[in-house]
């Protein structure tokens, strides 16, 4: 016992309110209205809180009192009632009052006191923790080992030392907290003198290796490196285990060292297994490594990667297949498409749409009729990229596709000059897809000047939805301001027809726009 009884009252009587407010802040709740069940369960919730959340809780607890006092003063200044539920007590309680509270509530009270702005109170709480050891006490000691006050930091280091001598295995439950503190300059002495020696102790070798199954990537990365450094596992075994890690950084680092750590036959075996790994970057880099070491499984891995679901491995496989074996990757994808719809054929369609040539038109065109809009879109992109001979017909068909993404891709192709949009094609899409008329209205800028005016006036002469009508009027105003300066031939739209269209649309045109259009149409 480091504090003699009876001790003066120094602990905050509102510690449970501070703790509850801090826990609520972690959940994004910043008011001061608590239900009784929250106050009762706060101490137990602290015991079960994940290690990674404890530093944020420490900060939230420290701020909760100042937020409470600020709100109270602000309400007093504005002469508004401040009504927290419950009202936080202002008094202090002596340490001996915790004897009857039970270990869980006593540890919670001391943890709250160790988060206070008052350095004397933080030091006092850490000394008192000697009589209530446990997970919360070690967490408080780890956090305060980075304290900005030297006496508090020395007391925290002494507490941590005694707790590690008593329950060293508990450190592995808080290893994520210990690692998160490692970047703090004031924490360096505690890390090198107390924490790291325990983590590297030979008697804890199995606990250290079990940390590679942690939910935290930071913990797993440290555990792999520490297991090799301490001899808990060989570098080869750690490398093989890390290759299966679900975090890309860890798996990628293991793959980068695999060539130097693994025997050739073991390396080839791991490279074969790489095709089943979840991270695309790892599958891609494994292909490059297999090519660099000339692995026996290279050709088999390339054949599989040609139908990888991700772009990166497919592109690497296509490049290596062409450079190493002199085979054209497009031929493999074309063969897959000719066999009909399947999982491999859909991947082949995705791949071919990125690098299609004019001769791929026969392979891509049948997919324009597929029930899946995504596959129709991929086929259309392939035809556009390959500048297929039948592209104008494909774009005309896609422009009235039921899926807006396919129709939008066709519009972008027309705007980019891959084919010329005609009034007949636009009018067909207008009639077949009324829900797309707002978007199709903007496509009139791709028509000849007089064709665009003829189309807009004809559309406005018929009853339209309010949004479509507003868009048509807006586009006509744009034509009057800017579009009239484009070059155009009256061969496609006679003045008589335009005047008749204008007369029919008169009821839906603003007076000023009608007069302006009337003067712009040649006589």
TrEMBL record:
- Name assigned to this protein: HEAT repeat domain-containing protein
């Amino acid at each position: 016992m480091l504090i003699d009884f009876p001790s003066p009252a120094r602990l905050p009587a509102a510690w449970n309110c501070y703790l509850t407010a801090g826990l609520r802040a972690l959940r994004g709740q910043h008011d001061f209205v608590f239900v009784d069940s929250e106050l009762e369960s706060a101490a137990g919730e602290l015991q079960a809180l994940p290690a990674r959340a404890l530093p944020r809780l420490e900060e939230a607890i420290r701020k909760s009192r100042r937020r409470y006092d600020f709100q109270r003063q602000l309400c007093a200044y504005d002469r508004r009632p401040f009504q927290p539920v419950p009202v936080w007590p202002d008094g202090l309680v002596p340490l001996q009052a915790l004897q009857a509270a039970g270990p869980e509530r006593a540890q919670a009270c001391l943890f709250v006191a160790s988060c206070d702005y008052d350095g004397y109170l933080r030091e006092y709480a850490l000394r008192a923790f000697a009589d209530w050891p446990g997970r919360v006490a070690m967490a408080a000691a780890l956090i305060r080992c980075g304290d900005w006050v030297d006496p508090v930091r020395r007391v925290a280091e002494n507490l941590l030392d005694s707790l590690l001598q008593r329950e060293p295995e508990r450190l592995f439950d808080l290893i994520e907290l210990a690692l998160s503190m490692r970047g703090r300059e004031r924490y360096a002495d505690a890390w090198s003198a107390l924490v790291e020696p325990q983590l590297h102790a030979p008697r804890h070798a199995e606990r250290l290796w079990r940390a590679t199954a942690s939910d935290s990537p930071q913990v797993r990365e440290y555990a792999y490196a520490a297991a090799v450094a301490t001899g808990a596992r060989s570098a080869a075994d750690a490398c093989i285990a890390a290759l299966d890690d679900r975090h890309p950084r860890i798996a990628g680092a293991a793959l980068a060292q695999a060539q130097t750590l693994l025997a050739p036959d073991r390396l080839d075996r791991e490279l074969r297994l790489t095709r089943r790994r979840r991270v695309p970057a790892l599958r891609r880099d494994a292909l490059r490594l297999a090519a660099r070491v000339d692995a026996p499984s290279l050709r088999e891995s390339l054949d599989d990667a040609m139908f990888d679901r991700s772009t990166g491995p497919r592109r690497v496989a296509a490049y290596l297949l062409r450079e190493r074996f002199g085979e054209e990757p497009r031929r493999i994808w074309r063969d897959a498409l000719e066999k009909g719809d399947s999982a491999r054929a859909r991947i082949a369609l995705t791949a071919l749409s990125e690098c299609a040539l004019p001769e791929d038109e026969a392979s891509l065109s049948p997919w324009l009729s597929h029930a899946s809009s995504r596959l129709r879109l991929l086929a259309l992109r392939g035809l556009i990229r390959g500048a297929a001979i039948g592209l104008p017909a494909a774009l005309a068909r896609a422009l009235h596709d039921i899926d807006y993404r396919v129709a939008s891709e066709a519009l972008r192709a027309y705007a980019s000059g891959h084919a010329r949009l005609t009034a007949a094609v636009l009018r067909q899409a207008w009639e077949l897809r009324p829900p797309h008329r707002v978007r199709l209205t903007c496509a009139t800028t791709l028509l000849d000047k007089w064709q665009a005016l003829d189309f807009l006036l004809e559309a406005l002469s018929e009853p339209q939805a309010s949004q479509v009508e507003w868009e048509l009027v807006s586009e006509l105003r744009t034509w009057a301001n800017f579009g009239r300066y484009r070059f155009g031939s009256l061969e496609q739209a006679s003045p008589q027809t335009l005047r008749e269209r204008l007369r029919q649309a008169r009821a839906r045109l603003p007076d000023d726009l009608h007069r302006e259009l009337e003067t712009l149409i040649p006589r």
